[in-house]
Amino acid sequence: MRPRTLFEKIWDDHIVHTGDDGTCLIYIDRHLVHEVTSPQAFEGLRMTGRTVRRTENTLAVMDHNVPTTSRAETKERGIMQEDSRVQISALEKNCSEFGVQLFDLFDKRQGIVHIIGPEQGFTLPGMTIVCGDSHTSTHGAFGALAFGIGTSEVEHVLATQTLIQSPAKSMRITVNGALSTSVTAKDMALHIIGEIGTAGGTGYVIEYAGEAVRNLSMEGRMTICNMSIEAGARAGMVAPDETTFAYIKGRPMAPQEGNWDKAVAYWKTLPSDDGSTYDKEVAIEASNIVPTVTWGTTPEDVAPITAQVPAPTDFDDPNKRQSVERMLDYMGLTPGTKLTDIPIDKVFIGSCTNGRIEDLRAVAKIVEGKKIADNILEALIVPGSGLVKAQAEEEGIAEVLINAGFDWREPGCSMCLGMNPDQLEPGERCASTSNRNFEGRQGRGGRTHLMSPAMAAAAAITGRLTDVRNMA
Amino acid sequence: MKPFTKLTAIAAPLPMVNIDTDIIIPKQFLKTIKRTGLGVSAFYNLRYSDDGTPNPDFVLNKPEYKDAEILITGENFGCGSSREHAPWAILDMGFRCVIAPSFANIFYNNSFKNGILPITLPQEQIDELMKEAQNNPDALTEIDLEKQTITRGNKFSFDFDIDHFRKSCLLGGLDDIDLTLEKDAHIKTYEDKLKDDKPWL
Lengths: 472, 201
What we know:
heterodimer, A: about 475 residues, alpha/beta, five-stranded parallel sheet, B: about 200 residues, Aconitase, domain 4, seven-stranded mixed sheet, 8 helices, 7 strands
């Protein structure tokens, strides 16, 4: 048999039917559902009299539009906006009517959809996993084929447990060597997007490989796979290995005794065969990656923290030059300014990119015994799930963060997209561990600089963008 | 879904690259539980000033493009969030066709599910269309999906590529779920085998 990549193996294993024109019907193993992109899909089922085909393979949670402040068990449940309450009630009603398991606001397992899937063992290697959310690519860290879909496709999966798909191109990004001290998976992700561009991955499924990727924890692998969509990729993945199996073992929805060995034996067949080929190969030297931040309004507009704000004339492409002018104006930045001279107003630590326990530990390590700077108006820490929150409290991390002046919140997507009241005011500048620095993303007129949790922690302490390597 | 066969309409120019779905429809409008009614909020932050009045400088607010049904724009259109609210908003605003040098995958996919035709053309042809739309706003552009052509009077005619399956769905206004349920026997066979092959699922 011809050598196959991880992606090809999973793809081949999920083909239900291939049409004459090459269009494939692909089986979907796991479907995650949240309150924002599902109401119209459930309504579609209702109007056509259809049901959810595989309720046991479907898991719902509310995360995008939930308060991160207290959720007292009152009628409002802490949700102050009526339209948000309607959307959350709609998910509760839909899940109960169609028999879908839901982690509601008072469930300690509630959290960001891409954090709870792995946490519960719902996400496993070799699976096809979808969700009406672009950051579904996160689950690729387990060696799964995971991608975001629109609401029409959410309805399609609910009704048929399949999707109509055409094959993707493949790209391998190999990160050779070891990352330097204080350089994290987030820096790697931002560096890669800076190299290949926000549309560099369009049409591709990216497989991340190489020593630096192998050495990442599952949390780190989730961070890089999560950001694949910011390079335009259909999905990102990392081949499963002992690190993967160790993470999964014992989780509530993971294969139990009896099936465990069978599952692991299958998972071990998944890594790309020697001699398999990719449509595109990218090689990166880990030693070239330093702590990285964004300065513009697309995730490709990155620079090492040691650099300065670029000028439009630094770019050859006239379209890019024009957009850089617009970005600098929006961001309120002057070319030539040292990045480390840029003061910030708010700090946001959380999101499906960096809201896991390892991220909170990294922040605690930097801020322990220190106080956030006087010019910081708000420093939010939003754990990715109720379980992450509980673990951080148990480890004493929460106390360290609260003592440093951080606001310790309930889990949710929060200021990553600002659907709830956690938003930037016009002109406010934020050091953020999230994934998108688009215009208005965190609030109309808000200015976002993306970075790692350790870098955001350093910025909170000094009040400006800071090279975490210089923190004592 | 409304079929898409031919469209003869005004084309509006939106010469920006990397228009993400947060720009197309900002977060505050995602709280709806309906598909309709988003048109008035499309491109909100570009279209309205801080006080909520229409921004006269934004191209889609100009009277000559009020009835436009074709949008001509820059590369990587629809990047970012998977929100289908983006094509819903564009459709509700009156657009049935978006022409760009490239699209983000999820937006591209979502468009077809809503009877919107996304067309990819080389940058030079986009530049020409853009210039035409800017200089002669009243002139009509004709899109023929069956023939896969874009014509602007006798000025020019471009051919475009489109996936065969997607084309036939648009032409017939076919519902994907109906098409898939016709293959229900295949899905059942696959599921039966799955129980033996991967019992842990």
